[in-house]
Design goal:
about 280 residues, 4-stranded parallel sheet, about 40% helix, 12 strands, 3 domains, Rossmann fold, Cobalt-precorrin-4 Transmethylase, domain 1, alpha/beta
Length: about 280
């Protein structure tokens, strides 16, 4: 049984940067050192950071001194202001691609557009972009959401960085008849696009495909959906411990891909376990 790993899989630049900033804080910045929410959506990495002395808190109310790390998904700008007012050391580990989306949301407002954010309404990244885009911004998750929107004079679009390009195209096509003028910022991360294309191509040519990453990870879940669309024998797992031997009955080729917040050591472990099977 052959095991093939996707050409693009695992950590992206934004995740590597966030983890580097977090590790550099240990021993250099005031303690306790906490991330505001999980720094990335991978429970195993969050646990690894905890062992290094970096815990996760849900709100600023849980920390009165020390250092707070803004996670890769970004936050409402008022949160950073509040942290500084509390006297906390602030490390901004927001992914640069997410920052771009935030600034694009603000620019749309400044230029007089009604902002539409394409993404998952309750995802922390989208919540942050929404704050930059102002109170009149609306979030569109599905094509049905777009169909329910009223007509616009000027509509501006910004996209959650992990959205599939197909979703952007569908929503834009739906909004064209509703607006006199449309401005689009395609803020989908290039690393996301590469991972999605590589995952789809691998799923087409393998008997079974394993998608590795946090069950709470939007980009990993999306990879699993993309693979599932072309290969029903798709399994979304977080670690090798979830693998079941019966998945590989009558199997010649197994594909392995991973979300942008999945570390290489977990990918290597999965490959090793499948190879042994």
């Amino acid at each position: 049984m052959k095991v093939e790993v996707a050409e693009h899989a695992g950590y992206c630049y934004g995740v590597e940067r966030a983890l580097k900033l977090a590790q550099e804080a240990v021993g250099k910045l005031p303690e306790p050192i906490c991330t505001l929410g999980p720094i990335i959506h991978n429970p195993q990495v969050v646990g690894w950071l905890k062992d290094k002395g970096i815990s996760s808190v849900d709100s600023l109310d849980s920390i009165d001194k020390g250092t707070i790390i803004i996670r890769s998904h970004g936050v409402d700008p008022t949160v950073k202001t509040a942290a500084k007012e509390k006297g906390l050391e602030v490390v901004d580990a927001t992914c640069p691609f997410v920052k771009k989306a935030q600034h694009c949301g603000r620019k749309l407002v400044e230029e007089g557009y009604d902002p539409v954010i394409i993404g998952e309404r309750n995802h922390p990244e989208v919540i942050g972009i929404l704050a930059y885009a102002g109170g009149n911004a609306v979030v569109v998750e599905t094509i049905d959401d777009a169909k329910r929107l009223h007509d616009f004079d000027k509509v501006g679009i910004v996209v959650q960085t992990t959205q599939p390009i197909e979703n952007l195209k569908k929503v834009v096509n739906e909004l064209i008849p509703k607006a006199t003028e449309i401005k689009i910022f395609n803020t989908i991360c290039n690393a996301t696009v590469k991972r999605q294309i590589a995952a789809r191509n691998l799923a087409k040519k393998t008997d079974v495909i394993l998608v590795i990453g946090g069950k709470n990870s939007a980009n990993t879940t999306r990879l699993a959906q993309i693979c599932q669309d072309v290969n029903q024998r798709t399994y979304h797992i977080e670690t090798a411990s979830e693998i079941k031997k019966e998945w590989f009955d009558n199997t010649n080729i197994v594909g392995v891909t991973a979300g942008a917040s999945t570390p290489s050591w977990i990918i290597d472990e999965v490959v090793s376990v499948v190879s042994d099977i």
